[in-house]
Each structure stands twice: as structure tokens, then as C-alpha cells.
Design a protein that fits this description.
Strand order of the largest sheet: 1-3-2
Protein name: RNA polymerase Rpc34
Mean pLDDT: 79
Shape: flat
Low-confidence stretches: none
Number of strands: 8
Largest sheet: 3 strands, antiparallel
Strand content: 15-25%
Distance between the termini: 67 Å
Helix content: 40-55%
Organism: Irpex rosettiformis
Order of helices and strands: HEHHEEHHEHHEEHEEH
Structural class: alpha+beta
């Protein structure tokens, strides 16, 4: 999927808004604010979706949003096979929670050898990164899009350092809280 013509100023405006927003996503509401005219919005959106510069996403509440795709990312994806695209889309759908290889196999219904081959290629192209487990599941290899940061549920947030409970930090924080409370009383 590549653009057969240059983007119009309106299409550039929408694409740029998606790329510069949080997590490169643009909500339907933000899009309506950006382009009030329904017809113009529909034409620009259809072209951007067809060119692969926007990807539709459905939020947990069933609301539609769009993720901006960088042209470089589009170039990297153009040579992917159907299986590789399927695996990449499943990983993208997992967001910053990542996805385990077993879940990839269950959702894609592909053979493990094919999934492994796809993951190796996607990792080499730096479209996907592998994380060595999470706080809850240390032995699992979790895959997520290369540009995303893992969620606090995966890393443990501020309470964990290198997937280990940071007892020293917790002890220091407890002492600071006790001192603060004692000074107030």
C-alpha cells in the first residue's frame, strides 16, 4: 500500500495530527474537531486509510480511533507476507501490555515454526521488540511494538527495579512518610 499521489493539505493535516498526538492515535471526536465538514473528513480519511497512513483502532468502549503510521514504518511493512502482517497486527492490538507467543499461536492459528519465523523477521526489522517476561510472568517472552513503552502492570511500576521488588525503596519511602506524619503531629 503506497500513496499513488501526494497528500492534500487536509490529508497532511490529519496525518500530522495523528502522528503528534498521544500514542500516535487520533480519536473520532478529535478528528471531527479538526475537520468539521463530514464529507471532506470522509474523503481524506478514506484516502489515508487506503494508503496505509492511518490504521483504525477500536477502544474498549467500542469507540473508533485512528493510529498514525509513519511513512518509514509503511516502507518497512510493504514487503511483509500475510502471516507476518497477521502477527504484527495481533502484536499491535495488544498495545503496551504486549502479547505472549502462546496467545499469538491461539489467535493466529498459525504453526509455531511460522510464528517464530515471523517474530524473528519483525524483530530484525525493528517493528517488534521482545521483553523477557513481566513482573507476574517472569519466564514468558512478551512481544510488543518497537516504539511502545511497557505498561506499569508489566514492569511493576515504581515498586520494582529490574523486575525485582525494590524493598529498599519501599523502606525509604515508608520512613519518609512516617517522618512527614510525625512532623505534622
Amino acid at each position: 500500500m503506497s500513496t499513488s499521489r501526494k497528500l492534500s493539505p487536509l490529508e497532511q493535516k490529519i496525518h500530522q495530527a495523528a502522528l503528534t498526538s498521544g500514542e500516535r492515535t487520533l480519536t473520532s471526536k478529535a478528528l471531527a474537531t479538526l475537520v468539521p465538514d463530514v464529507n471532506e473528513r470522509k474523503i481524506a480519511l478514506n484516502f489515508l486509510l487506503g494508503a496505509g497512513l492511518l490504521k483504525p483502532l477500536e477502544n474498549a468502549g467500542g469507540k473508533l480511533s485512528f493510529r498514525g503510521v509513519v511513512k518509514g514504518e509503511l516502507e518497512m511493512k510493504k514487503d511483509l507476507s500475510a502471516e507476518e502482517n497477521l502477527v504484527l497486527n495481533l502484536i499491535a492490538a495488544a498495545g503496551n501490555e504486549g502479547i505472549w507467543t502462546k496467545h499469538l499461536k491461539d489467535k493466529s492459528e498459525l504453526h509455531q515454526a511460522i510464528i517464530d519465523k515471523c517474530l524473528k523477521l519483525l524483530t530484525q526489522k525493528q517493528l517488534v521488540k521482545v521483553l523477557k517476561g513481566s513482573v507476574q510472568q517472569r519466564n514468558r517472552r512478551i512481544y510488543m511494538l518497537f516504539h511502545l513503552e511497557p505498561s506499569a502492570e508489566m514492569t511493576g511500576g515504581p515498586w520494582y527495579t529490574d523486575k525485582e521488588l525494590d524493598t529498599e525503596f519501599i523502606k525509604l519511602l515508608s520512613q519518609a512518610c512516617l517522618k512527614f506524619i510525625a512532623d505534622r503531629v
